[in-house]
Design a protein that fits this description.
167 residues; alpha+beta; Ubiquitin-like (UB roll); DNA polymerase, domain 1; 2 domains; 5-stranded mixed β-sheet; 16% strand; binds FE2/S2 (inorganic) cluster
Amino acid sequence: MQENTHTMNITVNGVNYEKEVPVRKLLSDFLREDLGLTGTHVGCEHGVCGACTLFVNGEAIRSCLMFAIQADGADVTTIEGLERNGELHPMQESFSECHGLQCGFCTPGMMMAAIDFLKHNPNPTEQEVKEGMSGNICRCTGYKGIVDSVLKAAPLISKLETKSKVF
Ligand code: FES
Ligand code: FES
């Protein structure tokens, strides 16, 4: 049986694409398989682990819970869209400096979720970071380095936000 497809237009990390996509293809799979943007990781595929977190029209979403065609016309930012002109985003710098990762599987989703968290709470306490990041699962780090990374990134991201350039 022929699979239903839909031609969609999407902007990802500032690049516009027109693609024919199976209507039931997940946004996470579309980014990885059709655009080669494998920085978005897929863990649980049912909205629990947070590994696939990215931004659609500025809102953090779990891309394993969204069909690609639901992002028709949208502006998407993935982990690949964080760096600018070869420079790491402050969240990436902070994860590197504070050892916020080990295997790195959870890391893209963790960083996107952390940026979203700091958008809503730019000057958090350690406890608020723990609670705010509790929807993202890491099997390696014990979370200490992740919490330290988010706390370190907070003032740096605030400075970016005053320039309207979170990402
Ligand atoms: S892969 Fe999407 S939440 Fe786990
Ligand atoms: S660094 Fe391995 S799952 Fe988080």
